[in-house]
Amino acid sequence: MFDLSNRIALVTGAGQGMGAGIARNLARQGARVVVNDLDANRAQNTVKQIQAAGGDASAAPFDVTHFDEVQVGVNQITENFGPIDILVNNAGNAGGGPTMELAQFREMPVSDWRRFIDVNLYGPANCAKAVLDGMCERGWGRIITISSGAGQTGLPMGIALYGAGKSGAIGFQRHLALEVARNGITVNTVALGLMANVGDEASLKGMAASQPTGRLGTPDDVGAAVIYLASDEASWVTGQVLGVNGGTFLP
Ligand SMILES: NC(=O)c1ccc[n+]([C@@H]2O[C@H](COP(=O)([O-])OP(=O)(O)OC[C@H]3O[C@@H](n4cnc5c(N)ncnc54)[C@H](O)[C@@H]3O)[C@@H](O)[C@H]2O)c1
Question: What are the structural domains, with CATH classification, of the chain?
Answer without folding.
Answer: 8-240 (3.40.50.720)
